Amino acid sequence: MNVSLFDLKAQNGALERELEEAFLRVLRSGHFILGPEVDRFERALAEFTGAKHALGVSSGTDAILVALMALGIGPGDEVLCPSFTFFATAGCVARVGAKPVFVDSCPVCFNLDVRDAARRITPRTKAIIPVHLFGQMAEMEGVLELARQYGLRVIEDAAQAMGATYRGKQAATLGDFGTISFFPTKNLGALGDAGAVVTNDTALFEKAKILRTHGMEPKYYHHVIGGNFRLDALQAAMLSVKLPHFNGYTAARRRNAALYAERLSALPNVTVSKHENCGSQRATPERAEALRKVAATGKRWSHDLYLPGVAPERDSIWNQYTVRLAEPGRRDALRAHLTARGIGSEIYYPLPLHEQACFAHLGHKPEDFPCAHRLAGEVLSLPIYPEIPAEQIEQVCAVIAEFLQA
Ligand SMILES: Cc1ncc(COP(=O)(O)O)c(C=O)c1O
């Protein structure tokens, strides 16, 4: 039996009748850009996140772009963001003419290492973009403390983490802006590209709203330059159908993660990543430093397979279930083993941003960000979509057991 990494047909097929009705409603309305469908979805999203305002935009990438533009970030400014993340985060910083200043990652939660961020602050630093990778929020207390200390703006890239919490507060609601992606494989997936910006700041919301439509206010008058970042009515209508099911999707992902953890942690040489090295990094800098040194030396870690862990006071919505194999070449060997047995997996992400050709002018060496560099060679994401049958997870675990014990 093949096991695919995603099965979008399973999720959308279950809602086919409601999605069809929503499609016909929009078709017959003749209103395809912004309008009542988008307004309705924005209200529902604001309510879901608990933020004051939500603004539907064309993608998660454009959400970051709009947020940066609304904060007035541009040439001469530096913006801190992780190296180990999807390209959009730093790409948007570069697109507004600012300089992405990369930050190393925590080897445990995969998110930005706050202590490393602190080291990279200069008088030009204007903002920080913590990315909540794979469904778990970054160490936000540390991020917000840095922001307070140095007067930085905070944009949470919550593309992968809508619904995740940190001390009970929702992703995307703690910074000046939170940005969300509704790319079809995200936990709330549209039927095409879509995204949102979330904020508690009414003045920033108004700015972002004007920027969404070419900086136009009133019609055909432009005091600022924006872009076309509008959300389609069709996508908003589809998302309105799916939003009420979001908590069910998350519950299913959590069940799937628990099943992986139960089955895989029973195997020899498998360990669950320990978060005392993560959330409390500032409290125990020596421990964090020791971890960074191990990463830099390329020494073998003590276990074969590391399962993802969730830090105290956080949770995960498990956008990805990402394991780590520390020994060089071992991750690729496991991936080949899974592929040969019809099991889908993916490497998010094989090359950290500081090593990307388009950022070569920044002059970084791979070892400048030792954890980000290592993670790119060690991570592997397994199928965890809400509708995956439990037997398929059992099958993935059996194949991994076979690999580890060979
Ligand atoms: C961390 C992160 N940021 C930004 C984005 C961009 O979102 P979109 O694909 O909707 O433009 C993604 C999407 O994959 C992402 O994973």
Describe the protein in words.
There is one protein chain. The protein is of the alpha/beta class. It is 39% helix and 13% strand. Strands 1-9-8-5-4-2-3 form a seven-stranded mixed β-sheet, with helices on both faces. The chain has a four-stranded mixed β-sheet with strand order 10-11-12-13. The protein binds pyridoxal-5'-phosphate. Pyridoxal-5'-phosphate (PLP) is lined by residues 59-61, 85-86, 88-89, 131, 157, 159-160, 181, 183, 193, 195.
Summarize this entry quickly.
The protein is an alpha/beta fold. The protein has 14 helices and 13 strands.
Which oligomeric form is depicted? single chain
Strands, count: 13
* Heteromolecules bound: pyridoxal-5'-phosphate
How confident is the prediction overall: mean pLDDT? 93
Record the SSE blueprint.
Blueprint: H1 8-13, H2 16-29, H3 36-49, E1 53-57, H4 60-70, E2 78-82, H5 88-95, E3 99-103, H6 114-119, E4 125-128, H7 140-150, E5 153-157, E6 165-166, E7 169-170, E8 177-181, E9 195-199, H8 202-212, H9 233-242, H10 246-265, E10 270-272, H11 285-297, E11 305-307, E12 321-325, H12 330-340, H13 370-378, E13 379-382, H14 390-405
Parallel strand pairs: 2-3, 2-4, 4-5, 5-8, 10-11
Antiparallel strand pairs: 1-9, 6-7, 8-9, 11-12, 12-13
What attributes does this structure have?
406 residues; alpha/beta; seven-stranded mixed beta sheet; four-stranded mixed beta sheet; 14 helices; 13 strands; globular; binds pyridoxal-5'-phosphate
